[in-house]
């Protein structure tokens, strides 16, 4: 384990009865890093988050927070940890202020510092205006903010956010993402989600988990390389024979689409866009659309998770059950 | 830390109408019983001086009041304790406590202390009634103290059972019903002892009855065995609750 690793998960297993929800999970979260924890529903994301958050004991393996085992010295480990579970743990009969005072106290913030800790958490989460309102009367977006405020109130070194944008409208989602990026400036963040753009916009590193196993662990730069375009969509007013298109330098394949456009495939190193434009002008093809087709994280995700389903066909049933176990 | 959680619990009771209505209803019913006892005492009073070793006002008014209070609170305490843990489980707020740097025993003790504070407020309100008798009479404070201690220990035992039952389920009503069931059973265990003619098994049952030990204290007999019985009883159920919460993380 390197010195700057804040969370280190070692050979983690978790069974629900006979069902394996998390299988031999190993990863690290470094200081100042935002880790996106990605996976379809029932992949074991929440289970892993709950284990790291000290809410669930692992069946085997261990979790170190800042070098402290969460089972051996839970008090020490949990002091470095802020956790927002899937359902924000809010007392709906309290006002935001009362709730945060309670959170500050149970997180053992010393009395003189409580005031400042609460004010700063409220300010960072944009809750200053609603401090005196009942949590029950707040919108879902604000409730989520209160949940995040609760997780960062004691300035932990790691913040775990389990699907923080679920059930929010697009504007609230954008606000929460801004907030997460802001939180990431001061804390390491582990963000679990099944929404891909979220990972693209917020995280430094992506981990994809499927059926309880880690299937991908890459930095967002490596991920971007994977996402580079290898196909162009081209629309021409007067379509030449396909063989003529194929003869353009750099074109590897040509495919006619139903709407009259063609999809042109090429190797990453030689992009034929320029050649196509030149040819189109020279031959009067009437080029009016040339779009690089970007592979989205979504496709990578689907590729990885579905190919994994093929190779691990025998776990099909288990995967579904794992999902139910997680919901329990 | 215990007091932070206890304070939250107490606030919760007073933020909802539940706490207030329970206090009001209990007070109303016991006040009626208190007045009935005073009426009874007034009828009895002319004859009392002629009796040798006649009971005083404490025995005729205060002790039956505390005895009745125990019975009414047997019905009421499950309603106060039912939400302690089950409600947090249902609203999924337990992760907040589990993720905070506090131990399970702190959580359980905090909840227990919170409920006990509420019950103590109730006990003080009940005690106000016999104490008003000081305006026109004198009281046997030794007897009153023993009976009060008995009621306090009895309530603490009720609360410990209620806390444990609440830790078992996510449904407050189930917690209330099962708490009530267990308490009533422990209460009527005594009957087996009363009716049988000295069978050793029924003696044991009678000894286990939560009522038997209260009756002794109501008579003003302070026996440390009775007090230890209650303390053990409370400890057992608190430990069981802690174990149950601990198990929450491991089993599913």
Question: Can you characterise this structure?
Answer:
The complex is a heterodimer of chains A (328) and B (252). By secondary structure, chain A is an alpha/beta fold. Chain A has two domains: 5-225, 3-Layer(aba) Sandwich (Rossmann fold); 229-293, Alpha-Beta Plaits (2-Layer Sandwich). Helices cover 38% and strands 27% of the residues of chain A. Chain A has twelve helices and 14 strands. Chain A has helices at residues 45-52, 74-79, 96-106, 111-124, 140-152, 170-186, 196-202, 220-226, 242-246, 273-283, 297-311, 316-327, and strands spanning 5-16, 19-30, 34-38, 60-65, 68-69, 81-84, 158-162, 188-193, 205-210, 213-219, 231-236, 251-256, 262-266, 287-293. In chain A, the strands form three sheets. Chain A has a six-stranded mixed β-sheet with strand order 6-7-8-3-9-10, sandwiched between helices. Chain A has a four-stranded antiparallel β-sheet with strand order 2-1-4-5. In chain A, strands 12-13-11-14 form a four-stranded antiparallel β-sheet. In chain A, helix 3 (96-106) crosses helix 4 (111-124) and helix 4 (111-124) packs across helix 5 (140-152). By secondary structure, chain B is mainly alpha-helical. Chain B has one domain (2-46, 54-250). Chain B is 81% helix and 0% strand. Chain B is built from eleven helices and no strands. The longest helix of chain B has 29 residues, at 104-132. The model of chain B has no long low-confidence stretch (mean pLDDT 89). Chain A binds chain B through residues 16-17, 50, 53-57, 74-76, 78-79, 81-83, 85, 87, 89-94, 98, 102-103, 105-108, 150, 325, 328, and chain B through 1, 4-5, 8, 11-12, 15-16, 91-103, 249-250, 252.
């Amino acid at each position: 384990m390197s010195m700057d690793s804040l969370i280190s998960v070692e050979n983690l297993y978790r069974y629900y009865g006979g069902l394996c929800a998390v299988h031999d999970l190993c990863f690290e979260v470094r200081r100042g890093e935002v880790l996106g924890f990605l996976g379809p529903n029932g992949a074991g994301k929440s289970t892993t988050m709950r284990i790291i958050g000290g809410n669930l004991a692992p069946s085997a393996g261990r979790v170190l927070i800042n070098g402290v085992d969460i089972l051996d010295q839970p008090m020490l480990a949990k002091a470095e940890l802020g956790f927002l579970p899937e359902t924000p743990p809010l007392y709906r009969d309290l006002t935001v202020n009362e709730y945060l005072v309670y959170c500050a106290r149970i997180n053992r913030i010393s009395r003189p510092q409580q005031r400042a800790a609460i004010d700063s958490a409220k300010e960072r989460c944009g809750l200053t205006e609603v401090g005196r309102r009942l949590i029950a009367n707040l919108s879902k977006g604000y409730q989520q903010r209160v949940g995040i405020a609760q997780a960062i109130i004691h300035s932990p070194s790691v913040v775990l956010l389990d699907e923080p944008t679920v059930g929010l409208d697009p504007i609230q989602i954008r606000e929460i993402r801004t907030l997460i990026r802001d939180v990431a400036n001061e804390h390491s963040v582990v963000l679990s989600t099944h929404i891909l753009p979220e990972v693209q916009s917020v995280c430094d590193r992506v981990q994809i988990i499927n059926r309880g196993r880690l299937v991908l662990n890459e930095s967002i730069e490596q991920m971007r390389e994977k996402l580079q375009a290898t196909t162009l969509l081209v629309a021409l007013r007067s379509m030449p024979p396909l063989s003529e298109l194929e003869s353009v330098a750099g074109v590897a394949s040509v495919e006619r689409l139903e709407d009259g456009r063609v999809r042109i495939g090429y190797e990453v190193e030689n992009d034929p866009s320029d050649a196509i434009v030149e040819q189109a002008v020279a031959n009067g093809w009437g080029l009016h659309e040339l779009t690089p087709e970007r592979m989205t994280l979504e496709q990578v995700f689907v590729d990885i998770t579905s190919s994994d389903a093929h190779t691990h066909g025998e776990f099909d049933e288990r995967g579904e059950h794992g999902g139910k176990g997680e919901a329990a | 830390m215990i007091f932070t959680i206890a304070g939250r619990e107490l606030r919760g009771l007073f933020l909802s109408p539940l706490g207030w209505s329970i206090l009001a209803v209990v007070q109303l019913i016991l006040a009626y019983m208190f007045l009935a006892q005073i009426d009874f005492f007034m009828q009895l009073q002319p004859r009392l001086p002629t009796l040798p070793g006649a009971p005083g006002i404490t025995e005729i008014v205060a002790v039956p009041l505390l005895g009745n209070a125990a019975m009414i609170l047997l019905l009421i305490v499950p309603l106060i304790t039912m939400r302690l843990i089950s409600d947090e489980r249902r609203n999924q707020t337990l992760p907040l406590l589990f993720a905070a740097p506090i131990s399970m025993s702190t959580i359980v003790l905090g909840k227990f202390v919170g409920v006990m504070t509420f019950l103590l407020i109730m006990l003080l309100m009940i005690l106000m009634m016999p104490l008003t008798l000081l305006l026109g009479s004198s009281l046997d404070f030794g007897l009153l103290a023993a009976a009060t201690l008995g009621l306090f220990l009895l309530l603490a035992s009720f609360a410990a059972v209620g806390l444990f039952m609440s830790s078992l389920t996510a449904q407050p009503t189930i917690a209330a019903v099962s708490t009530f069931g267990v308490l009533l059973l422990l209460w009527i265990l005594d009957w087996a002892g009363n009716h049988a003619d000295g069978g050793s098994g029924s003696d044991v049952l009678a000894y286990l009855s939560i009522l038997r030990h209260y009756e002794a204290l109501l008579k003003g007999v302070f026996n440390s065995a009775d007090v230890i019985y209650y303390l053990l009883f409370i400890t057992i159920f608190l430990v069981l609750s802690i174990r149950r919460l601990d198990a929450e993380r491991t089993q599913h």
